[in-house]
Design brief:
CATH class of one domain: Alpha Beta
Structural class: alpha/beta
Order of helices and strands: EEHHEHEHEEHEH
Number of strands: 7
Shape: globular
């Protein structure tokens, strides 16, 4: 099968058209390893609009993201109608459950905005965990309503088993 690559921030950082071959795959791996993003911001809409322009034929698309950008909802639904879209939602456990370590300065990686919070405050940690859970639930519901297969991956756990489960479930569904 042909494999291509679109790496994006709030713009298209790198586009490699789909091709076959071992040499091509090695090039993709190299490109992933050496990319130096020109921006800290992300915009899924830009990437999916670009995808729909350059990939007219139906394709299997792996969208790997933390999905912190909710602005891409419409573009995601459009792409899912044209392609077999699989969402791989990556998260860090520290984003889900803050440790109680006192005052911490958080910085938004995209905007640079900083805020000082007291992680020893139990109510703050509970509210934060509830917001993170709402965010994840929003995306789960969106993926299900748009019939997008998805898997949640954690940065502190091997990704092979969750991916294998997703592919096994897809295989069962498509066999029916």
């Amino acid at each position: 099968d042909k494999v291509g690559l679109i790496m994006f921030t709030d713009c298209i950082e790198r586009f490699v058209p789909p091709r076959k071959g071992r040499k091509h795959i090695l090039r993709l791996v190299r490109d992933i390893l050496v990319v130096e993003p020109s921006s800290q911001r992300t915009d899924i809409s830009t990437a999916l609009a670009f995808l729909n322009r350059v990939q007219r034929r139906r394709a299997v698309i792996f969208l790997i993201s933390d999905f912190h950008d909710q602005a891409g909802v419409h573009a995601l639904k459009v792409a899912a109608r044209h392609h077999d879209l699989l969402a791989l939602m990556v998260s860090d456990p520290l984003e889900q459950s803050l440790p109680s370590i006192g005052w911490v300065r958080f910085e938004d990686a995209e905007t640079g905005e900083q805020v000082l919070v007291n992680t020893s405050d139990k109510r703050f940690r509970q509210r934060f965990a509830a917001l993170v859970d709402q965010h994840r639930q929003f995306w789960r519901q969106l993926f299900q309503s748009a019939q997008i297969d998805y898997v949640e991956l954690s940065t502190n756990e091997p990704y092979i088993i969750p991916l294998w489960r997703m592919f096994r479930e897809r295989h069962r569904r498509f066999r029916r």
